[in-house]
Amino acid sequence: MDLSIDDKVQALREEMRDFFAKNLPPEFARKTLIGEKLTKDEHKQWHAILREKGWHVPLWPKEHGGPGWGPMERLIWEEESGMAGAPRLNHVSQDLLGPVLIEFGTPEQKAELLPRILSSEDWWCQGFSEPQAGSDLANLQMRAVRDGDDYIVTGTKLWTSYAHVSNKIFCLVRTSTDGPKQAGISFLLIDMEQPGVTVSPIYSLGGMLSVNEVQITDVRVPVTNLVGREGGAWDITKFLLGNERLMGAWIGVNMSLARQVRERLGRVGADGRKRSENSVLAQRVAEVETDLLALRYTTYRVLADELSGKAPGPEVSVIKVRGGEIMQALSELLMELAEIEGMVHPLSMPHDGVPVVPDELEHMAQQFFDKRKLTIYGGSSEIQRNIIARRLLNV
Amino acid sequence: MDLSIDDKVQALREEMRDFFAKNLPPEFARKTLIGEKLTKDEHKQWHAILREKGWHVPLWPKEHGGPGWGPMERLIWEEESGMAGAPRLNHVSQDLLGPVLIEFGTPEQKAELLPRILSSEDWWCQGFSEPQAGSDLANLQMRAVRDGDDYIVTGTKLWTSYAHVSNKIFCLVRTSTDGPKQAGISFLLIDMEQPGVTVSPIYSLGGMLSVNEVQITDVRVPVTNLVGREGGAWDITKFLLGNERLMGAWIGVNMSLARQVRERLGRVGADGRKRSENSVLAQRVAEVETDLLALRYTTYRVLADELSGKAPGPEVSVIKVRGGEIMQALSELLMELAEIEGMVHPLSMPHDGVPVVPDELEHMAQQFFDKRKLTIYGGSSEIQRNIIARRLLNV
Amino acid sequence: MDFNYDDNQRMLFDMVDRFLTDKHDLAKRAKLLTDPAAEAALWREMAELGLMGAAFPEEVGGFSTSPADPYVVMERFGRHLVTQPFLYTAVIGGRLLIEGLSGADREEEIGMVIAGERQLALAAGSAHMLRSAEDTAFAAVPDGNGWKISGRMPAVLNGDRADKLIVAARTAGASGELAGVTLFLVAADAAGISRRNFRMIDAQGAAEVVLDGVAVGAESVLGSVDGGAVLVETALDHGIAATCGEAIGSMEYLIEATAEYTRTREQYGAPLAKFQVLQHRMADMYIQTQTAKSMALVAALSLDGDPAERMRMVSAAKAQVGRSAKYVGYQAVQLHGGMGVSEELDIGHHYIRLNFINQLFGDGAFHLRRFGALAQAA
Amino acid sequence: MDFNYDDNQRMLFDMVDRFLTDKHDLAKRAKLLTDPAAEAALWREMAELGLMGAAFPEEVGGFSTSPADPYVVMERFGRHLVTQPFLYTAVIGGRLLIEGLSGADREEEIGMVIAGERQLALAAGSAHMLRSAEDTAFAAVPDGNGWKISGRMPAVLNGDRADKLIVAARTAGASGELAGVTLFLVAADAAGISRRNFRMIDAQGAAEVVLDGVAVGAESVLGSVDGGAVLVETALDHGIAATCGEAIGSMEYLIEATAEYTRTREQYGAPLAKFQVLQHRMADMYIQTQTAKSMALVAALSLDGDPAERMRMVSAAKAQVGRSAKYVGYQAVQLHGGMGVSEELDIGHHYIRLNFINQLFGDGAFHLRRFGALAQAA
Known about the structure:
The complex is a heterotetramer, with 2 copies of chain A and 2 copies of chain C.
Chain A: H1 7-23, H2 26-34, H3 40-53, H4 71-84, H5 91-104, H6 107-118, E1 124-127, E2 143-147, E3 150-157, E4 168-174, E5 185-191, E6 197-204, E7 208-222, E8 226-227, H7 233-243, H8 251-265, H9 279-307, H10 315-337, H11 364-370, H12 381-393
Parallel strand pairs in A: 1-4
Antiparallel strand pairs in A: 2-3, 3-7, 4-5, 5-8, 6-7
Helix pairs in contact in A: 1-4, 4-8, 5-6, 5-7, 8-9, 8-10, 9-10, 10-11, 10-12
Chain C: H1 7-23, H2 26-33, H3 36-49, H4 69-80, H5 86-100, H6 103-114, E1 120-123, E2 138-143, E3 146-157, E4 164-170, E5 181-187, E6 193-199, E7 205-216, E8 221-222, H7 228-264, E9 266-267, E10 270-271, H8 276-301, H9 307-336, H10 346-359, H11 364-377
Parallel strand pairs in C: 1-4, 2-4
Antiparallel strand pairs in C: 2-3, 3-7, 4-5, 5-8, 6-7, 9-10
Helix pairs in contact in C: 1-4, 4-7, 5-6, 5-7, 7-8, 7-9, 7-10, 8-9, 9-10, 9-11
């Protein structure tokens, strides 16, 4: 047993810290840390800065323009970029679709689409969930009917993040209703900038626009837009989800929130006393901090096991469940520590001079309520517990 | 809406307080409050004192020797006797079997058996659970096969409280295997002082003897010992359980524990400071106290509804679940407040002069661990939640 | 002992419920939030209905016969997700008028509230959630026969709509002391007052309120000079009991809505209601709600009794209700899945309001501390 | 980074596991509790196996190569529900000998422990659960070249079997101060010491220890005069890390046993394991255990690092493990139903020990306070 981190990895960590300190525009970090959204333009600026360094597609191998990092380096990146408040870039394109195309794409797809992600020209969103298929993808309804060299696609995707800023969407579609339900599902790339594709925003609690409904009606999609074979979406989906298995811990973001919580605990509260002297509050903070430490080391432990060749167990579900719960607890503490100033509605605030409440507090409540989704989406906490139990019980 | 208590009931409460103050031997109260068991002789002494007052069978109507109390008076009795530390007398005979015999017994059964309970000559125990039938009574195995004017009874009862101090047992037995499983179950009275009946103690956590296994092998029981009709146990059981529906709150005992907790919180702890200055601990205590207040008023609310003729809802399950949880929390607090002195094993303590730890602390840990059963027996917390959900969902 | 609404309360309940069923739903609520005129109209309608009178006993012109009557109103407000400031204007503001004024002044001021022609807001405290007045951000100094008040509060609840502010200002002693706080009834548009309006996360209105040497006369004092903090304590306890009612109404609605949703929504080939984990979650929502409800009713019924007992019961209720509200809201959202976190459904709005209520008037930790201190002293 | 046992630890693990599988079960454990001779014999066997050496590095005669080695031993002890005082004698006592002695003394004393011929007990603190030495109940006054020690502790863990006591006595300063506590290594049968033996609720032995002017020489001081409390702090951290291992072993066993029980026990016509509520309960037991285990391993691996970091990690682990242990134990009993609360099954005994561990060496509140203070200072 050994807690030390490889020298090379440690050096990379230092390099990242140094890079963020020198190159991350403070305004971008500020916005990211308090939960304000960056504009698409700002995202593109940051993309360009990262591209210069070669860190714009952190999950990609070198031959396709990525840094060629292993799992440990990626985890360090997750920690450091989260801690620094680096905006999470066009995540669906870079972390989800990119690796899928590299693994399953045709030479033509790779040649055409990867550069467009690298250049930030394409912004992809992911069309998985549907009104009648939330956690249970087997119930998928979006149809893709073969017609010559095209599919004709009709259906509705729900809870689609980033659809309002994306120009393309990859969808799970039903290409067959025969045989086992999963076998009829295919993975299809669809251009959103065409008639028949409608995006309607869904506002989440606190008025944040982060998800959408995407309606697709009689849209022709060339068969060449199929990734993998027809009916082969299941394996691709597993691969795609596997790629962010350890990301459910939200380690870096959680560490940055915890730092803010600890810092605010040290300040003077409404009753004129240092908040850290309130031992009930101090205990709650310490409890979440220790939870986060445990989560962080669980992530390292799973990763170390993985690197040493052990088959992954249900620990990934542990990480997903705890990562969401801890982020909810931290954002609640931040909101509570801000007392009444943390409870304002950011969309209603006057901006006519001196702000009513300090900038960094304006989004506290919105952030807290927005994070409510963490234990619901991407496989709810209930689903994760089913998975764990199935492994424990072999039922 | 009205919080006030009827003058007559309030007067009875005062009378009870006064009676306990004057007549309850302090040694009995001390033992009861710290969880030490009274001897059978001591129980009989207390029975005699209560009999003189006419309060020895609090649930019975006047014509059978009881005080003829209504539900509100009984609840007050529960509170006051619990608060005073009055030993709970031969509960199974008086509160469970007595009312059953009064409602369902033959004239002969009443004439023979009720006086023997009133005189404390008979101590009954209740044979419901079996090794393969815990929460699920339909799976009952104890057979009673008709042979002339007798049944021949064979089977095993488990978790039988008081069996080691009882001379009689009433059992649910299977008299038929035809038809629906519940229909073949009968309610039978069995003398334990005969060959074929074996009682084996089961020690619960912390070394307390409170339950037993009762094996019955080829024991002849006269058919006249049947209560109600053959196969009619289901209704009797429902009646019997209904009689203590509100007792699952353990209101009086919980109030007495809460008083002890609050009192100990005011003392000086191992670190030389008043424990109440430890705000984390103080908050835990206040939280259980408010939980208990809410439980108490929920009990009153259910009772008031009942008295006004409303059909009982799943609130009774709420009371059972919370009553057990609160008693566990209170006994844990008592144990923790006693620090290391609360963690000794009472059966191992030397009694050769000055006690190693103060008397009232010796049983703290044993009491805490013994109370672990509260959320398991008499319909586990899981069963209670099933019941609540069924009512909410009509599933 | 009786926990059923009496005849008056039953009538009040039916009246409010009928009105809200008729005039209020999620879509209308959303419209109100962007339309001050519609909000004002609805308020007048409610006043015409006689609603405000539920917060005032007959001797001051209302029709309340029990201190629990506002609980009944707010319980329905909670169920229907109403954002109208009955709480701030009639319950808390009204209580301060009842206790702080007398004679013709009282009659007039209360009359305005009952007529729906006056909105009130309590500007007490500093950055906390309207917990007490001891650390108020305002200070008043004598000025001739009157006073001059200065100070700033970042968020005065209902400060945006208030015609009059009840300002708690320190007139003696040090911050944190109960004595030395005086209440002033001040016109919201008085010279020297500036306000900037916004909404809290629960959609209810608020304003930053700045007083810069606002001159008020001696007649504007509510209650006695230096004796205002105790009045605030009483008024907030009335507010808390009513808000507990609101939370109970909201929680009972969430349980029904969640039961209904899980009965109809299918996943993996079965209605969600068939999954035992979700069944038990709903059972726990019910357990939490029922026990909190008992405590909330007791708090409402203790309002006109012994003050120490009132405070003890109100704090016990607030802590319980807050904890239960957070749990029930969280699970209602969780069981609704994606729909629960969308603004399109009312579920999420209830969740937000319940979390807001948990913080409002002091959170669980604050009230358990108050309860514990009273218990330890007893 | 590597969280797998290294080769040495793997051998140690196998050795302990084989021995215990062979020599220990619930029935044998019950017998040991009433048979001191059998207990002593088992202890000697364990020493002959070389077990004690796991707590001592090579340079003092042991074979430990990592500070986490005692964790490995205790993890197996936890799984097999062993009550033998490896923790008090070898881990805590041993650490105090390592740090508090030098030269031939150290060699001899440690040699006795490794040989299984010495049992140790730490008599520090007062009524708390061996949390620290600052408020020790003993005081020592200079007496010629030596000291005279007096005081009483109601329960010294392993005090019943100890041949030597390590007594923490105040020699300067006031109760609660870190400085001014001195450690003395005293023969348990020295004149002026009286003991009364009993067992704690977890079945492990203890004794009331009374010292009445016990005279000891200057050579009996461990470490420096007035500098003992810091040594105790270090030794207890080693003890905590090892105990966290014990808890993890116990919890992992409970999860396996509960899974097995629910797979076989039928109720309402189906194995308990088919009920989703129980499935999720087990999933939560697993979540709690896995996260606590990560923290426990980190604590064990931090023992020989920077003291502030060691304390931070040990406190984080203790708080986590205690909370998880209570949850896992509670649910294991609950899912075993009546059998869970019977002394006949090992489940309940694990539950008792896990609750004891939660209190031992300071409970979660104590360690979160220590963790928080270090975090706030950093």
